[in-house]
Specification:
Elements (H helix, E strand, L loop, with lengths): L2 E6 L3 H10 L7 E7 L2 H11 L3 E5 L7 H11 L4 E6 L4 H8 L3 E6 L4 H20 L9 H19 L8 H11 L14 E11 L9 H10 L4 E7 L2 E8 L5 H20 L1 E7 L9 H13 L8 E3 H4 L4 H20 L2 H12 L4 H22 L3 H9 L2 H6 L5 H41 L7 H8 L3 H12 L3 H19 L4 H7 L5 H12 L3 H12 L1
Parallel strand pairs: 1-2, 1-3, 3-4, 4-5, 9-10
Antiparallel strand pairs: 6-8, 6-9, 7-8
Amino acid sequence: MNYTVLVVEDEYEQRRALIEMVDWAAAGFEVIGEAENGVEALDIIESLEPDLILTDIKMPMISGLELAARVRELRPATQIVILSGYDSFEYARTAINYNIISYLLKPISSSEMSEKLFEIHERMDEKLGSVIAAPDADTQKQLHKLSIERFLLPLMLGSNEEQPDDEELARCAEELGIIKKGAPEDGATPRFCVLISKFKQIGGSSCTGREHTDFIDTVLSHYIYSFSFIVYGRVVSLIVTNEKGKLSNILELPLRETVQTAKRMLNQSCTIGVSREFTSLSGCASAYFQAVTARRYTSDGAGEVRFINDQERNREFEIDSLEKSVLKLEQLLKVGTNDSLEAFVNSFFEGSTPENANLLVVQIIATVYSVVSNVADDKSDILKQLSASAIFARVTSYNSESGMKNELISFCKNAKEIINNSQKRESEILCDKVIEIINDRYSDEQLSLVGISNELAVSPNYLSALIKKTKKKNYITLLTERRMKAAYDMLVCSDMKVLEIAQKCGYSDQHYFSYSFKKFYGDSPNKVRTTNRKDLL
């Protein structure tokens, strides 16, 4: 396949020579853009979405390695070629961490560059093309994968009749290689989460298939352990990590690369839901349904990746308590005494608000109805008797079936409106908090989207997409605008030196600041200061 290229070089003649004299097409490349420095490259990379960036290592403001590091955060699927006059092992070693697929020494002629492009294309085919490679033909590996799938499937679907023993599950997981044997050296216990992924043709219908399990695992393998399989037309992935830190931060780049690679290599959209983390494999079933729910939230258009914590508060303990109460009621109905039933119902209402008490009534009625339905021989007559009880009649007192349906429809629509309004308010509140943080701390050079997302307890992927959807601008643009407006005020209303203003606006490099300022306002800081001072006289 052909790959797209962005050429970044601060020397105009060298940049034009690279673009015009090198035979890109013969090697399977197309130059789609150029930039005179790293700052300009960062501005256009999201719109161009290049497969490859060719950049000089020594540039003003942002070096080639700094550019590579930032590109990795924005587009981890993009590969980098560095041109350098430094034959240094340290540079080469650093390059490995930033998706730098080739490190070429200058000077290099156009013919030499043309030849190198064939090698680069081959490496990109190996690196990117592996995600759509044919399934492994190794019988032993296939049998091993099948064993893992058979182990995980009942855990995900909750098909065990008895609560699985966590120690036994951990032992089986070690034997299958899902988790490493023995205690980790740093004492960190394995953490898990579940991903649910679905694929669609761009602008078309769902196309999720077994081949996508290998795609997911291949992309994620560069970062983290995963095992994927198909359930009900979804790719289900178990993620395992011993790495410390927030799970949303650990998964930010892997999931972003998965979405980007699906779009570029498969011409498909990929949406992913992520569960809460858990430390015992018995938590797979609840995590599976959390991830299913989280992925459905991606339909709101605020990003392709959604963590369940981005949308729903952790009600795990309340849900567990409710489920345990239902199970206890079922047992008491079947084998308990009347006194134990009375004590159980009384305990429900102790310390409960009237609103919660009403909800408990509905829950109890539903549980009783379900248990009787399961054990009764002549269901129709017995259920009629149950339905005739005074409490059931009060809850379901309708003049007609159509009246009941209309009230239920109205009730559900009202609930949906409450949820939609709540989500909208929360989205606006989150974005307003981002603006507030930017306004308060724009002078901090280290202020980042990841840091803010951790502070606001949402994933970086979600916060980035939410800002774009709500504010119609990305985070970097909002931060730059605030810094530039502050710089303008300081230039016009103070006698501070330009370097001092730059530092107060989050720029340690005065040249970088001046470049950004001129790009934003059209004039240099000194010219803006001089012009506006004259206007004030």
